[in-house]
Amino acid sequence: ARALHLDLVKPCYQLVLFSFSAEDFDYQTTRIAVQNFLQQMNFSGDGKLVKLENVEFEKKFAVYSTDQLEARYILTPQLMEKLLSVQAREKAPVRVLFEDNNMIIALPRSKGWLEPPFWKSFASMDVLTETVQEITYVINLVEDLDLNTRIWTKK
């Protein structure tokens, strides 16, 4: 198995990683990130730039893959629209990695998730509200990207 290399974390910069497993699929490596981000962070790896049909998606994102055909199979017009929608909500660049049987979404955050401050009670209303918002965000992400539907299968 290949190791996942994310050289993106800086001392004052946090990522929240969402990993979704596609058990019936064994992805090559496809990386998606906001334009220029992959090049700046040397995140393109061994992949080659993938040209897609969605002009708006290509303006916002760069896609690199070790398998051009598979990248086009994964990035359906619907998924491209959904990723554009997620990016529009985010204040920082969204990154997506398809590798082995995983889809990993990296979202920058200024603090950890589901980590209430140790000096506050978890039962306090503001901590509880923030926790519910974070859980709701994850549920909405799964629903927005339709990740609970078995659509990626080679079998």
Give the tally of β-strands.
6
Q: Assign a percent range to the helix content.
A: 25-40%
Strand content: 15-25%
What's the helix-strand series?
Answer: EEHEHEHHEEH
At a glance:
The protein is α+β, with helices and mostly antiparallel strands.
Draw up the topology in text:
Layout: E1 14-21, E2 27-34, H1 37-40, E3 48-49, H2 55-60, E4 61-65, H3 68-74, H4 77-89, E5 95-100, E6 102-109, H5 125-144
Antiparallel strand pairs: 1-6, 2-4, 2-5, 3-4, 5-6
Description:
The structure is a single chain. The chain has about 160 residues and is an alpha+beta fold. About 30% of the residues lie in helices and about 25% in strands. It has a six-stranded antiparallel β-sheet with strand order 1-6-5-2-4-3. Strand 5 and strand 6 form a beta hairpin. The longest helix is centred in the C-terminal third of the chain and has 20 residues, at about 125-145. The model is unreliable at about 1-10 (pLDDT under 50).
Structure keywords:
single chain; 155 residues; 6-stranded antiparallel β-sheet; disordered N terminus
